[in-house]
Structures are given as C-alpha cells and as structure tokens.
Amino acid sequence: MAAMVLTSPSPLPTPPGDCFTYTATYPRPTLPGPEWTLVRVHACGLNRAELRSRAGLPPGRPEFNIFQAEYHADPPAVLGEEFVGVVDVAGPRSGFSPGERVAGFIYGGGKAHDGSYAQFSLCHSRRLFRLPASSAGQSLPWDVLAAIPMSMVTAYGCVVLAGGLERRIASQQQQQQQKQDQNQNQDQNQDQNQDQNQNQNQDENQGQSAGGAAAIAGHPNVTVLVHGATSSVGIWAILLAKERGATVIATTRASSKAERLKNCGADHVVLEDELDRDLPRLFPCGVDIVLELVGPNQTLRSLGFAARYGTVVVSGVLNLQWELHGFNPVMIPPTRNLSFYTMTNSGPGGEDAEIDHIQPLLAEVIAKVEAGAYPLDCILDRTFKLHEMGQAHEYMEQNKAVGKVVVTVP
C-alpha cells in the first residue's frame, strides 16, 4: 500500500520533507484482534502532536489513550492520529461491517502502532464512529469530512463537557427568569389607584421586565476565552460556543489572523502579547471558561484569567511542551476550577466515559456543515496530498493555518 514513512526523525532545522519517504509498497496491516477494523483511509487531519513525533520527541502518556500499556517513547514508522474512510476489514466483535463510512480517532496510531499516513490503517472499534448514512454525510468531500471529527469532538468536550457551558447558560437563564418573575409580581401588586407618579413607576418596572424577557429570549453573557484560537480545536470552540450564545474572546500571535477569527464568530480578538493587559480591561472580573490550547505550561496564567467559579480546561500542546514544572494544587486561586479534557478511558478500569454523545453529535454537526451553518473556510484551511506530507508539516509548523490542515490519500 501507499504510505508516507518516517525514515529520519529529526527536529528543526531539518526540512520536514527530509524526514519522510513516500513508498507504494509498505506492508498492509492485519487485524491484531476481533475488536479491530482495517480502514481504507481517504483523508487524514493533521495534529501538532505529530510535529513532535516527526522531531523524535517522546509523546505524553495521555496520547496513548486506551493503549497505555503499550507506551513507548519512540515513534512508529507511520504517523497519523485521525482519519475518515471506509471499513475494509471488520473483526467479528468490532460491531462494524465492510463498506461503512467512518471516522477514526486512533490515539495509539502514530504512537503505539502505525497511523493514518497510509492507504490503510488499523483502528480499535472503541475509537471508530460511523459517518451519517444520510445525504448529509455523503455530499461532503473527504477533505472537509476529515476537518470535522477529532477537532470538533475535542472542542465540544472542552467547552461543553469540561467547561460546563450549557450548564452555565441554563443557570444564568434561570436567574434572569427569577428576576423577571419578581418584577412581574411587583407590577401585579401595584395599587391600580396610584397617582400619576406611581403609574409612571409602574411603567418603568414593566420596562425592566421587558428587558429581562429580552435577555432571556437572547442569551446570557457567559464568557469563553480560547487561548490558541487559530488551531482547529480553537476554531471549533469558537463555533460551538457562539452557537450556544457565549461571548467568545480569541487569541492569536498574528494580527493578520484577527479578521478571520472574527469571521468565525469571535466577539473579541486579542493579540497574545497584549493579552495580560487587554483581557482585564475587557473583563475586569475574569471569564467563565478558559480553554487552554497553547500548553500546560500556560496553566497558571490561564487561572489568572478565570472569574470566580470559572473553569480552566487544558487540552492542547500547541507549543509542544507537555509538562508544567513546579506546580502545586494550592496555586489554584480560590473558587477557580482546573480541568483537563481528552477523549480517554477515564472511567473505572477500562470503561470509556463520556463517549456515547459522539455518534449523534458527529451526525448533527456534519449535517450543519452541509447546510452552511458552519463556514467551510473556517473549518478547513488547506488540503495537501499524501506525497506532500513534508509540505503539510512545514505549513503547520510555520503557523500559517487558521483551522484544519488535511491530507488526502490516493
């Protein structure tokens, strides 16, 4: 099969293209067990974690996900952690059938075993999800489909599950409804025989009630800071948070990317170098949810941006640094919360937690992409071909993208 093989793991300044060798004769994988599938890959999304693997840097243990027992520091020959494609061979206990269109999150791929930079890739059934069989799933091209699953699911998990966005909005709506009810009760208890001044006060109270109703009809002002917003997860965080009514603040190091972030829905765009100065001016009391995608070593800084009872969710390693040295839980400011999100086996034993929502969520979002609810130019930045993997890595490494970089597989 065709594959892009990592033959010379090397850090910069080695050109990325010198690290890979394209071959048409790489051995096709075979199923290691009955719960596995072999998928014909049509496109794969790129992750910055793969830059570390290409450079020969050891992965973090969370990256092995359900393959923790297979942890090793050296990368396999074929990188790649995600794909979209068609099931070619299905194990008898996988729950899948040949011919099904699927998206795979192969966290172990490109780490514990060969990944998706190839025509065929293994994927455990616990990390394989059906693409919708409706016209919504079949009308989008493979490169667009590849820009959706992992980034979107990660952003949803960070903002909605770990950050509690919908819960926060519901709580504020309930508080606003209670205030509206109080105003209405005050209006109803007004003495109908009051003089003109009293009637005027009644009108003012009714106006206040109308304002409360308008706030409820709209959305409460829950604030979300996306630190590392031009990444594919950052873009999806903006889209999903705005769709649910949050006020979104996006950060970037490049002023040239500010307009694109606004076009994706960000209410405020703050340059990285100005964040410590400008964010307190915009939100003196802090923000409700901080999505930390730059790296764990930014955690203390992000906690300083959080409002009382706010949550910092650490998920990304855009700066390629996994560790936070010298951290102690007592450094977390009082009433602030710190969380981490990845789609992992976080339940007891080998149980997966918080994954039942993924299949319906994926179908819903793909249908919305087809309907134009999410702009394609926000989701997919650029598409390369498999033999252009070096160029794709260089493009990503130079931070040129706003959104997902995708590679199609012939």
Brief digest:
This protein has 410 residues and is of the alpha/beta class.
Q: Could you say which overall geometry the principal axes of the C-alpha atoms support? A: globular
CATH homologous superfamily of the largest domain?
Medium-chain alcohol dehydrogenases, catalytic domain
Treating each run of at least 4 consecutive H or I residues as one helix, how many helices?
A: 13
Task: Look at the structure and give the mean pLDDT.
Answer: 87
SS content category: alpha/beta
Strand % is 15-25%
Q: Care to count the β-strands?
A: 15
Order of helices and strands: EEEHEEEEHHHHHEHEHEHEHEEHHEHE
How many strands, which pairing sense, and closed or not: the largest β-sheet? Answer: 7 strands, mixed
Tally of domains: 3
CATH topology of the largest domain, anyone? Quinone Oxidoreductase, Chain A, domain 1
Distance between the termini: 10 Å
Low-confidence parts: 200-219
- The Rg value, from CA coordinates, equals 24 Å
CATH architectural name of the largest domain: Alpha-Beta Complex
Question: What is the highest CATH level, the class of the largest domain?
Answer: Alpha Beta
* Range of helix content: 25-40%
Write the layout of secondary structure elements.
Elements: E1 3-6, E2 20-23, E3 36-45, H1 49-54, E4 82-90, E5 101-105, E6 120-124, E7 128-130, H2 135-139, H3 142-146, H4 149-162, H5 165-188, H6 196-217, E8 223-227, H7 232-243, E9 247-252, H8 258-263, E10 268-271, H9 275-282, E11 287-292, H10 299-305, E12 306-314, E13 337-340, H11 358-371, H12 376-379, E14 380-385, H13 389-397, E15 404-408
Helix pairs in contact: 4-7, 5-6
